[in-house]
## 1
Amino acid sequence: MAKVTGWTGKLLRVNLTTGKITTEDSMKYNKDFIGGAGLGYKVIFDEVPQGTKAFDEANKIVFAVGPLTGTTAPCSGRTNITSLGPTNPYHAVTDSHMGGNFGPWLKFAGYDAIIIEGASKSPVWLKIEDDNVTIEDASNLWGKGVIDTTHEINKIMGKEACVAAIGPAGEKMKNLASIVNTVNHSAGGHGGILGAKKLKAIGIKGTKAVHIAEGKAKDWLDLNKYMLGEIIGANNNHVVPSTPQSWAEYHSKGSRWTAQTALFWGAANPPVETGECPPGDLNKVGLRTQKAVFDLGPVAEARTVKMGGCYSCPIRCQSNLYVPELEKYGLTPYATSTCINFSAPGTAMLNGYSDGDSKGEVALITKCLGSRLADDYGIWSNYGQLPRDFKYAYSTGKLKEVLPEEEWNSIDWSLLEKGDPGWMLEFYNNLIGDGEFSHLLDGPYYLDQRWNLGEEYWNGAGNNVWSKMAYPKHHSNEAGAQVGVLVNIMFNRDANSHTHMNFIGAGLPIELLKEIAGEVWGSPDALDAPMNYTPMNEYKAKFAKWSIDRNMLHDSITLCNWVWPMTVSPSKERNYRGDTALEAKFYSLATGIEMSEEELDLQAERITTLHRALTIKNMNTIDMRNEHDYIPEWVFNVDPDKKPFTEGTVKLDREDMQLALTMLYREYGWDEKTGAPTRETYERLGLKDVADELEKLNLLP
Amino acid sequence: MSDFDTLEDAIEDVSEGEAVLENEVVLEEDNRVEPEVLIEEPEELDKVALIGLHIRESSMYGRLNNAEDFLDEPFSLEVEEALSLLEELKSRDDFSDIIFHKGKETLYMYSDKYMSNNYAKLLILVEEKDMFRMIAETVRDESKTYPRPTDARLFTKAPFNLTRSEFQQVYEELRKKEEYSDIKEVRASNQALYLFSDKFMKEALAKSLAEWIEVEAEQNP
Ligand code: SF4
C-alpha cells in the first residue's frame, strides 16, 4: 500500500468509561470525508444513537483535523470539534473550531483525530506523547481556570506541549462553554460536553513529521510562494488597504488590511512599522493585518506588542497587547485576542464607558479584561449573543424579575452604570456562579424556556436571534441578501461560514465583484450591490451552495475560513482574480491523490449532505423546510417603512425566500418540498449506507 | 526593490561602470523575491532615461512629479530642454509605464508600475489645490464606483491631509456652490458625517450604507 501522506492515517479512540485507549485506521473516513468536520459527522452519524442528548454518556466528541493541518499551507492550523450541540433545541450536531496549535500538534503526535466516548467518574485529563497515551487524574485541576490548568499540565509535559482545557463553565456543564487551547484559542459550544465526561484537558506533544507526497517539495514551495506573492490578501481575504495608498487602485475603510505608513506595533521593542505592504512582497504579508487597531481603535497601536495567530498562518489576526492596567484586576499585564472575543465584552457595557469613548482607553481595558476572563473561565459568547441576551433581559426588566432579590442586591450594578471596567469581573463571575444570573449561559432556547422572554425577543430586529433554531445570525441578510440567509439556515449553531462575506467585503468595486461572481457562479446576478437587492435567482443559489460547501471543505481539510477561499486577490495584474483551485492543489500535493477543484467540491458537497442527514436524524423529521430552515420574522419586518428590493434596505420578501429555499434544495438535489436529501442524491454522493440507515428510521422523503 | 536607495546612487553606480541594477542580496531560496530591474539595458542610460527613472522612483515613494521638478537639481535643465526630453520620454517604449497628465498649470507624471492610476488621480486633485473639486470628485467617484458614501474623515488623512477645521470650512463653502449641488450628506446613528453624490446614489442607500460602515459592521465582525 502506498505511503499515506498529508494525513497520518491513524486516529485515537479514548473511552472514558472503560479507560480503554485504542488506535484505528483513519483512512476509512479520510478517503471520502477528507477529515475534520467530515470525519466528525461520519463518526457521530454512525455511532451516536438517535435521541442522545449532548451531555449524555452516549454522546461522543471528535477532535479532528485534515490532510493540510500541520503542513505549511497558509492558514492551516485550525482544529475542528464535532459533537451534539447543547444550545440547539434538538441537540443536533454542531462544530466548534479553534486555532492555535492543537491540530498541528495532534498530527505531530501521529493522529488525524481523537474520538472521546463514555464518561469518567472522576476528573481526568488526557496525556498524549506520540504513541504514549494515558488518562491522568485531574482532581487537583478541577475547579481551576484554563490558564492555571494549562500551566500545570505544561509543568508536567514541558512547555512545548499544547494544552486544550475547559474552565469552570465547562465543568459546570454550561451550554455556552468553550474549549480553549494555548490559553486563548477558543472553540465555542462543546466545553460542557467535556465537563459531562469529566475530561478537564488534553495535553499533546509529538515528534513526528507531517509528510507531503513524495517528490513534491519543490512544487509545494512554488505553490506557497505563488499564493503568498499573488493571491492572498489580509484577514477575511480583504484585498484592498483601509486607506488610500500609492500602489493600490482601491481602498475601503472596513478593510482588515490596516497596514499603512506610520502605523506601528507600538509596544514592540523597537516598534515595528507596518508600512505599505503591496502584493508581491512575501515578507510583508504578516504585517498587513494590524488587527488591534481594527478591533480596538487607535489607542491599541501603542499597546501592540505584535500580531500573533495560529500555526502556519501568515495573516496573524490575533493581537498581542501589553495592558498593565489588567494587573489591578489580578491578571498579568497581557491580553491576546481578536474579533468577537473583544467586541462581546463591550456589548455587555450597556451604559458605555466611563470616559464616554467607545474606542478609548477604558474601552480597551474593558475589552481586554473581558476577553481574558471569558477565555480563563471557558465561556463562549455565542457570537456575541450572550451579552445581547443580558442586554435584552436587563433593559426589559426581565432580569430583575427573575433574579432572587438577594442575588440582585449582591451584584454591584453601579459598575455597569458608571461604565467601569470592573463590571467585567462582576459579569463573568456571576455567569460562572450558581445563581439565576448564570442561566444566561443556557443560550437563547433554554433561557427562553426558563425566563419566558416573549415574542419581541425572537422577532425584534437588532436582537439577531435566528428562530426557531435559536442561534444568532452570522453574516445573514446584510451579507448578500438571500445568499447570507441561505448560509444561515444550514447549520445548527450560528453559521461560522465566511466564504460569502469574505467575497462581499473584499473592498473591491461592485462591478469587479460582479464580474468575478459571473466567472465563479455563472452570472454577475449572483451578487447584488450592498443594500440594493434584487429577487432570488438560480445564481444566488449556486453562490450560497458554494459558500456552504467551501466552509465544509475548510473545516475538514483544515484551512481557516476567516481567510479562505481565494475568490479574489489584491493583484491588479490578475485583475483581482483569485484562485479557487488552490485548496485542490494543496490537497493533491499533500496527499499525492490528484484532485481537481470540481472533485474536491463534490467531496465537500458530500460532507454538507451528511451534515443534513445527521440533522434529520437528530431532529427525527424530514420536514427541514418548516422545522429547521425557518427564517426569523425580523428578516421580513426590518425597516417597516421600506419595501423589499428597494434601495437602502436589507429587508427580504417571504415568498421570495421560499423560492430561495427551493432553489438551494434543487442545487443540492434535495426534495424540494421538505428540503431533505433524496435516496438518489445520497447514492450519487456515495452515501448509500446513510440512506439505508435513514430509511430504517423512516426519514427519507 | 533595487539595491540603490536613491536615483543618485544609481547614477553614481552607472558612472563607475557597474551597470547591473539588480538585487544582489542572497535570500533563502523559499523567500526569494523576483528582483526588480529598473531598466533593462543600463548602457542606454541617457538624460531621458534618467528622468524616467526619477519618475519611477518618485512613484515608488508615493510622489507625483511635475515638469518644474526637472528645472531643479539634480537635473537643473533649462525649460526648453526639459520639455523636449519629456516629449522624447513619451515616445520611449521602455518607459511606457510613465503616464503624463496635463493639469491646470503644469504637466504631471507618474509611473503606473509603481503608482496606481486612482491614487495618482487623488494626488493630482490635491496638487491642483482646488479643494472643492478634490472633495466633490472623490465623493462622486466613491458613490459611483464601489458604491459607498464617503467618510468625511477621509479628507483629514493622507494624501488629502486637511485639518478638521480646514475641511469644515471648505465643506461649508462647497455646500453653497451650484456646481457641487449633487454632493449631499448623511449621518450614521453615531453622528459620523458621510458624503455622497445624488447623481450616483439615493439618500436611502447612502444612509443605510453609512450606518453599516460606521456602526453595524463592528457589531457583526
Ligand atoms: S487568520 Fe487568524 S484565525 Fe485564521 S489561521 Fe490566521 S491567525 Fe488563525
Note: The domain at 248-442 of chain A is CATH 1.10.569 (Aldehyde Ferredoxin Oxidoreductase Protein, subunit A; domain 2).
## 2
Amino acid sequence: MADVLNLELNSSEPLLKVSGLTVRHLGAEHERTIFSNVDLSVARGETIGIVGESGSGKSMLTKAIMRMLPPYMAHEGRIELDGQEITNLSLRKVHQLRGDQMTLLFQDPFTMLNPVLSAGEHILEALRANKKFRKEISKQESKKIVLERLSEVGIHDAAVAGRFPFQLSGGMRQRIALATALARNPKLLIADEPSTALDNTTQAEILALLKNVQQSRQMGLILVTHDLRVAFSVCDRIYVLYAGSILEVGPSVELEKAPLHPYTHGLLLSEPPIDRRIEVLTSIPGSVPSFDNVLGKCAFAPRCNWQTQVCLDSTPQLRNVGERHVSSCLRLQEIKSELIVDRTGRKTADSPFVNLSTQSALPSITPVLRIQSLKKTFINSQNRKVEAVQNVSLEIAPGECVALVGESGSGKTTLGRCIVGLEVPTSGSIELDGLEATNYNSISRESRAALRKKAQIVFQDPYSSLDPRQTVADCLSEVMQVNGEGKDSRNSRIDALLKHVGLPESYRVRLPESLSGGERQRVAIARALAVEPKLIICDEAVSALDVSVQAQILSLLRKIQKEMGISLLFITHDLAVVRQIADRAYVMKNGLVVESGLVDDVLSRPQNEFTQKLLSSVPSSASQLAEKDQTLLLKKDKDK
Amino acid sequence: MTLTLRSRVSKLRDVPGSVLVASLIIIIICFAAVAAQFISPFNPMEQDLLAVSLKPTSSHWLGSDELGRDVFSRLIAGSRGAIIGPFLIAFSGLVVSAILGIFAGYRGGSIDNLIMRGVDFIVALPGLLLTIVVVSVTHGGYWMALLVLGVLNVQGDIRIVRGVSLEQRKLPYIEALRVVGVPRWRIMYKHIVPNIYPILIANFATDFAGALVALSGLSFLGLGSQPGTPDWGRMLSDGQPSLFTNYWAALSPGITIVLLAVSVNLIGDWVYDFYSKKSLQR
Ligand SMILES: Nc1ncnc2c1ncn2[C@@H]1O[C@H](COP(=O)(O)OP(=O)(O)OP(=O)(O)O)[C@@H](O)[C@H]1O
Ligand code: SF4
Ligand SMILES: [Mg+2]
C-alpha cells in the first residue's frame, strides 16, 4: 500500500521507513489492538510530528519503532532504519542501535535521569556505551566532548556538568536529557511530549532548542505531541493518529491552513485562538474510542458530524488528496467546501460584557469576591520562608469571569486555595459576597456553612478529584445532604445537575473509573454547582484535558457563567484559554500582581514586560519560532 | 464495575494456587475451632497411661504425648485459643488504628502530635521483655498477655494508617469535599476508610500472624495459658524434652503454628496487592 501513496521525499532513501506496523496487547483474556497498519517515513533532516489525543497510541508507536515494547505487546509489519531492517533484530543488536542510530527523549526528564549521576556523568555514560569510544577516546578528550554537548543544548556554564538532577530545574533537566540522547550522534531522535511537563516559557525554549539542534545536525526528528500548535511550530510534516489509525498525513503548512479530515479539522477548531474570542467554541463531542471498538468503519465516525452509512460500511484507506498529503475520509470530496465554511465562518464574539471599572464606581454592587493586600507565607522543609502570595488585591463582580495567569510557582493556586479556606492567609483580608472569609478556622460553624455556599473550587487533575469508590449520584447527593437537603429534592436535583453539565441520567450509577477525563471534570463541576455557589474557582480546570474535550468544558463553563450568573475565577497558564473565557485578567509573578485589566488590553496591548514574555512564549508558526529561538539563545548567553 | 472482591474474582483460576491452599488451611483450622467437640477423636484432657508417647497410629493420628493424651485431639482443642487471641489483638489493632491513625493523619496539628507521642512511647518500650515481666509479675495469664501484646501491637498500625491518611488528605477529592462542607468525621469514615482499607486488611493479617507467634512464644515460656490447657505453644514446650524420641508431639503444634501464620500472611498480601493493583491501573 505504501507505494501507492507518494509520501516520501522524491527518490532519496528515507532515514526511517515503517510500513504496515501493527501492535497488539496480548492480554490474558483477549487481545487488544493498540494501533494498526501504520505507514510512516522520515527523511534525513526532516521533522515529522505525530499528533493525537491521549490514548490514541502515540507513545506505543514510538516505543514500537525503538523496539522498546513491553514483552506482552506483539508487533508485526516492517521497520527499516537507514536501509537496515530492524523489525525482528535481536534485542542485543537493537540495544547497540539505540543511542548510535536512534534515541528517545521522554516527557518527564526526571524519569530519564539517574539521580546519583551528575549531568556530565550522564553524557559520559552514554558515550561509553559505545565500544569504539571506550577504546579510542582519552579522558581529556571525553571531557571536552561533554562540554561540547552541553553547549550544544545551550548550557555554557561548565559547572553544570557537576550538578545532580535534583539540583536542576525542569528545563535544565530536559536539556541534560537531550545532551545525553545526542551524545553518540544519532541519526534519528524521537521526542515523546518533550515539553509537556514544563511551563510555557521553558516549553518554548526547549522546542526552539530541539528544532535548532535538529537543523544544525540535519538529523531526523519525530516529535510526539498532543498539542497541534507545538507540532505546527516545529514539524515539516504531521501524522494525525486517532484510536490507533492514521487519519491524515500532510505538510504542516497545509494541515494548519486547510486540514483535509474532519478530525484534524475539529482538533484545529477546538484549539482556542489567542488573538480573538470565538463566539461558539467548537469541540468534538465524546472522547477517543479504542481501536477494536471502531473496527471495520471509519475510526472517527462515532464523533463525526458528517458521518453517513458509507462511513460505517468499511475501514477507509488513506488516499492521496494533494502533494504528499493523504487523508482517510471517505466523503472528503463532498464535504470539503463545508469544512472551509466551518473554518472561516466563525464569529468573533463581542468584547466582555461586564466591566468592573465602571461597576466599582457604583457602590451599591457588592463584589462576589474582594481580596485586599493578601499575603501568604509558607515555611518550607529547610525552615525558610517562602512568600507564595506577597501582596495581592483583587475583585470580582457578580457574573464576571476573571482570569488569574502566571507561570507555575507564581502563587495563583495558593491564592485560590485561600479563598475557599484550604489555606489560611498570613495577612490581608478576603470577603465573599460581603461575608468575612479570611480565616475559615476562626469563625462559627454557621458562618462557615454560609461561606461554602459562596465559593467552590474545581481542580486540575480529573483523575484524583473524585472519590474512586463513590458513584456519580452518591457524590452529588452527599454534597446536598450535608447542606441539609431532603432526599426527594436531592434525587430530582441530581438529574437537573447532570443535565446542566451535559451528562446523561444513566451516568448516575457510574464510578469514576468508568468515566473519561472530561466526564470526570463535568462531575466535579456538578459537585461545585450542587451547593449553588456565587463563585467557582477553576484551578487549571482544563489544563489536563485533550483539546477537543477542553473546548467542551470551556463551553460548559461559559454557559454556566451566562445562564446561572455565576462568577468564575479562572486560574490558568494558558493565555488562549484566557482569551476565550475571561472578561478581565490579572497577571501574577512571584506572588505579586504585575498587570491587570480587560482581557483585550492585557493580551493585545500588554504593558508589563513579564506579560509580554508570557505572550511571546505561546507556540506559533515555524518562522516566528525560528526568530524567537535566536533571540532566546542570545538572551541566554547574555545572562551567563 | 463495582470494586467488590466477589465481582472481581469472578473465576477461581484468577486466584494464585498458594492463596487457595492458604484459604483451605484457614478454613480447616476455623472449622476445627468451631466444631472441636464433635470432631475430636479423643478427649484432649484424658490421660491414657497405657498409651504414652505413641507414634502415629490409625486411632492416634498424630500419636500421643508423655501423659498419653491424643496429640491430634489436643491440636483441635487448641485451635480455638490459637485463633481467638490473635484475632482479638489484630482486630483491636484495626479498630484503634482506624480511629486514631486516621484522626492523627487527617487532623494533623496538636492532636496528631499527642497521638504520635503516645506511639513513640510504646515504640520505646522493650516489647517482649516487658510482656514477660508484666505477665509473670501480675500472674495475669492469657488475658493479661493479650492486653499487653495488644497495646504493643497497635503502634505499628497507627503509624501506617496515619501515613496513608496523610496522603489521602492531600488528594483533590478530599479537599473538594472539605470545600463543599462535608464534616470531618464523615470524610474520615465515609471516604478515607473505604479508600485505605487494603492497608487495614494487610495490617490485620500481619498483626494476626505476629500475635499468633508471640502468644505461642509466651505459652512456650510457661506464661499466658494455664498449665494443662491444650495450647499450641504449651504443647510445643511440653513436647520439647522428648523432641528426639517423640517428635510428633512437639512438631505437630509447631508446624500448625507456622502453617497458620504463613497462610494468614499470604492471604493478607494477596488482598492488598489485589486492591493496590486495582487503584494503580488508572
Ligand atoms: N503498558 C501498557 N499495557 C497495556 N496497555 C497499554 C500500556 N500502555 C498503553 N496502553 C494502551 O495503549 C493505548 C495507547 O496508549 P499510548 O500511551 O500509546 O497513548 P498516547 O497517544 O501516547 O496517549 P497520551 O497522550 O496520553 O500519552 C491506550 O489504549 C493505552 O491504554
Ligand atoms: S469517513 Fe465519514 S465518518 Fe469518517 S471522517 Fe469522513 S465523513 Fe466523517
Ligand atoms: Mg504518550
Note: Chain A touches chain B at residues 420-422, 448-449, 452, 455-461, 463-470, 478-479, 482-483, 510-511, 513-514, 524, 527-528, 530-531 (CB under 8 Å).
